[in-house]
Amino acid sequence: MASSVNPTVRRRRLGQELRRLRELKGMTAEEVAERLLVSQSKISRLENGRRSISQRDVRDLCGVYEVEDQRIVDSLMEMARDSRQQGWWHTFGDIPYSVYIGLETDAESLRVYEPQLVTGLLQTPAYAEALVRGALPETSTAEIEKRVRVRMRRQERITAETNPLRLWVVLDEAALCRVVGSKLVMREQLEHLIEMSQLPHVTVQVLPFEAGAHPGLNGQYAILEFTDAADSSVVYLEGVTSDLYLEKAPDVQRYAVMYEHLRAQSLNVEQSRHVIAEAAKAYAE
């Protein structure tokens, strides 16, 4: 059964704390790995939160770091126990981007740049289905349906009555022109996009073709920010076979600055709605 505890965030917080303890001890990941007779990659995966952490791992690491305060050990052990629980997304089975879903579920705000498509959190079911079917042509119908259900479930963060996700989307004009599914699907999708953009916590800007060269030419990315100061911001880069998560402050800052430039080069909110509305009308003809 899925838990209200977010295991992804628990693993991340625990990993950050274990890294802090290692650095206080003045040890490298390689030295810790040698002491515990494990691979250095295991220590790295534990610290970056990409791997489940057992209570035994915590106990062994606390021993290496000579943590004497039992309250700290107990707190870390509890976090390890929580990190092995299941989030709501686990009920859907194997999901390739489950780490991202875990972060998105707990994020306070999300800034997204999309160069080709309407972002997942603002997609209609028909658009999402056509998109998955076209992007993954060898995927079974059952898998397509599962991915669409997961996407719709993720969208509950946007419509939540309490603490909804603050979403800012910069959408390249190309996304309005690329026909996904059919003209009818596109018209409904763009009308939905306009409706969602009127929510007080959702901002949608269109980056017009006239902007020319811009900082987003390297592709899609998202910046996730969290309420808890202990959780650093994350830049998410989606890949075909694997995804990349950037957490180092200089990397996050660089993408944040790029995003500010994208917002500045985009149409304002009202202009963006007008462009989207005109594109929707064109699909009705």
TrEMBL record:
Superkingdom, taxonomy of origin: Bacteria
Protein name: Helix-turn-helix transcriptional regulator
Secretion signal, residue range per the UniProt entry: none
Pfam families in the record: DUF5753, HTH_31
HTH cro/C1-type domain boundaries: 18-72
